[in-house]
Amino acid sequence: MKKHTIDPSVNLLDVKPQRTAQWVQEDDEIVVILIPKFNNPFLVRWLLPYLKSQNFRLSLDRYGSALWNACDGITTVADIIETMKRRFPDEAGSIPERVIGFTRHLFRENFIRLDV
């Protein structure tokens, strides 16, 4: 999978992240991102039927899950930061760096797209 980079001229606080990967909600707080094991059509056709699971499962912690659920394509990163500060007041000081860093990581891995 090709990794994306963010254009340095874009203010990350103004973008609206939108989920592009498949995912499931494990319980009230935890999100699991489903990552396909193969993208090659040949491998998908001939190997996947013999595998127990078609996807790798990436479990997010409660902070990552809260951010993931906020990536709706409508809410800006700045708004997500404010929501996270209210939801996790004990961690309010580190929330901006964590949200921006994790948003960059999700974008690089093609799990979200960033709409301006």
Offer a quick outline of the entry.
With 116 residues, the protein is an alpha+beta fold.
SSE map:
Blueprint: E1 16-19, E2 22-25, E3 31-36, H1 41-46, E4 55-59, H2 62-70, H3 77-87, H4 95-108, E5 112-115
Antiparallel strand pairs: 1-5, 2-3, 3-4
pLDDT < 50 stretches: none
Average pLDDT reading:
88
Corresponding CATH architecture: Alpha-Beta Complex
- Helix fraction by DSSP (H/I, runs of at least 4): 25-40%
The side-by-side strand order for the widest beta sheet comes to 2-3-4
- CA gyration radius, whole angstroms: 16 Å
Give the oligomeric state: single chain
Kindly report how far apart the N and C termini lie.
23 Å
Biggest β-sheet strands, sense, barrel: 3 strands, antiparallel
Name of the top-level CATH class:
Alpha Beta
- Domains, number: 1
CATH topology: Outer Surface Protein A, domain 3
Number of helices: 4
Structural class: alpha+beta
Query: Could you give the order of the helices and strands?
Result: EEEHEHHHE
- Count of extended strands: 5
Global outline: globular
In terms of DSSP E residues, the strand content is 15-25%
